[in-house]
Amino acid sequence: MSMRGTSELMLGLLPIVLVLLLWQALISFGYAPPTLLPPPSQVFARMGEQLLDTSFQQDIVATLFRLFAGFAIAVVLGVAIGIAAAVSQPVNAAVRPLVRVLAPLPKVALYPAFLLLLGFGHESKITLVTADALFPILLSTYYGASIVEQKLIWSALAAGTPPRDVLWKVVLPAAMPSILTGCRIGLVISCIVVFLAEMITSTDGLGHVLVAAARQFQAVDMFVPLITISLLGLILNGLLGAVRSYLLRGFPEV
Amino acid sequence: MKSILTRLAPALACLGLLVAWQLGSLALANDSFPTAWESLRAIPAILTDRESLLNIADSLRRMAIGLVLAVAVSIPLGLLMGRSRAVAAFFNPLLMIIYPVPKAALMPIIMLWLGVGDLSKTLVIFLGVSLPVIYHSFEGAKAVEEKMLWSGAAMGLTAAQRLVRIVFPAALPEILTGCRTGLVLALITMVTSEMIARQSGAGNILFNALDMGQYDTVFAMIIIVGAMGICFDAVFEVARARLVRWSEPQFDIPLSFS
User: Do A116 and B258 touch (CB under 8 A)?
Assistant: First the structure.
């Protein structure tokens, strides 16, 4: 198995290496002028330089703050509404049509409204991140909670669990795998949305770094924030994976 | 009686949201937050203006081309990944790296290479739509029952025929879920790419109005774009329900990505 894992990993690295080679070849053979497509070595050198730069670090912190704040609110709201809709008929009747209308709505189109109502600071961006990350989390929580086996609840009641504790002790843990899947999708969306919001209007953050570089036609500096957000996404995904395997210890298969 | 109520529920929800908006804006009495009624009244002016209509039509054309191309490429790729471990191992890490990158954020770089025209925007929509469609096709193809494939092979179907005649139909419900996400995403990417490359399109009207302080136009455009999203989703849902009537009723609320 580990033999197979290693060879699959090598196979997976192949296309990434190929992309880098193609990138370098385009420049080496003169198909792309370095002003439009800087060589990978230059981009990664610049990236290393930037990561040590204080103002770039502050941009990363600003982006991460908005991302986490928006994502955290989305998780709390999504899980609470999702569970409430699964266990209560009246809530369900109210939430279902609302979700059906709001989920396919392109949230980015609401951004101008958030800007006008909440101003150009953190609030409007955090609200946009929450609005976009909320629905996948809400839907998978609802789905996970509505397929909890009735037998589990009966057993808990029979074993003497007070009915009001059933929610915390049975429904929430049983829905956890599904909730975490939703969180994972929501996290990727948060990364994407926070970056877009910063690109549209911002004075700091990774998205703003990209736009500022684009205005000055600094191709190298345009690649750096993109690679940074990709790395951040990978790291956060890895962290969520660790949280997942901690929370789901004892589940038969993850 | 009850079924009429369930059918009308989304429309009631829309109405409820508009009423909440109206009350909220009356309570806030903020100049930059027009009431729902004022915004609704600004819609006919946009929809009868020749230039705005051309802009919106341009947007929709780019969106349709990007969406169709992305679906045509992603479904076969996703199915192949689902049926072959090697293909999946080859593409998975690359896709994982691309996933958290906002596709519309590639716009400035692509604009450097291909200009601000249709080509860049269509390409960005293509990139935005492909990932969820690939992912869902992959998941769908992975879950196809081996027994059906064995029977197919025993009856003399070649590998390619098995892919088209067994894997594709069996994975169709999952593929269509991916397409539905892709549809919403195409709309989102379309609006975002036009916000960034301010040249034409619905996103451009929206943000030009914001810059010029025409707040009723801003909110009217939000309603138009939102209505597009809801209508596309509803139409797709009807088509999907017909195509996969045989499969079990699926979870009928779409996931929206950005």
Answer: no
